[in-house]
């Protein structure tokens, strides 16, 4: 009993991405599209009251490799608005 192979699978690297978001997109907590360095387009659901510099983790959307894929860490950058300040 207990002779099974219990090696852990390696997890691929996390992927860090910065996403520019308008104040209007942030205020309505809508989905926006992030372009990843490998060419993938991924829909990111913005949480309510998202803040500049906040990081959203997308599990399994990072680097692909043997074993488990890494996570994508999407850092939010709120674009300046001509009329409003945050």
Short description, anyone?
The protein has 86 residues and is mainly β.
Describe this structure in words.
This protein has 86 residues and is mainly beta. The chain has a single domain, classed as HSP40/DNAj peptide-binding domain (Sandwich). Helix content is 7%, strand content 33%. The chain contains 1 helix and 5 strands, in the order βαββββ. It has one helix at 23-28; strands spanning 15-21, 31-35, 41-45, 55-58, 72-78. The protein is elongated and about 55 Å long. The model has no long low-confidence stretch (mean pLDDT 86).
List the helices and strands and how they pair.
Blueprint: E1 15-21, H1 23-28, E2 31-35, E3 41-45, E4 55-58, E5 72-78
Parallel strand pairs: 1-5
Antiparallel strand pairs: 2-3, 4-5
Provide the descriptors you would attach to this structure in a database record.
three-stranded mixed sheet, single chain, 86 residues, 33% strand, 1 helix, two-stranded antiparallel sheet, mainly beta, HSP40/DNAj peptide-binding domain, 5 strands
Mean pLDDT: 86
Q: How many beta-strand runs?
A: 5
Number of domains: 1
CATH architecture: Sandwich
């Amino acid at each position: 009993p207990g002779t099974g192979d219990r090696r852990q699978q390696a997890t691929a690297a996390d992927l860090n991405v910065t996403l520019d978001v308008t104040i209007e997109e942030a205020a309505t907590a809508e989905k926006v599209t992030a372009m990843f360095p490998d060419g993938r387009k991924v829909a990111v659901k913005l949480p309510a009251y998202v803040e500049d510099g906040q990081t959203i983790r997308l599990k399994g959307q990072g680097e692909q490799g043997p074993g488990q894929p890494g996570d994508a860490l999407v850092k939010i950058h709120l674009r300046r608005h001509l009329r409003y300040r945050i």
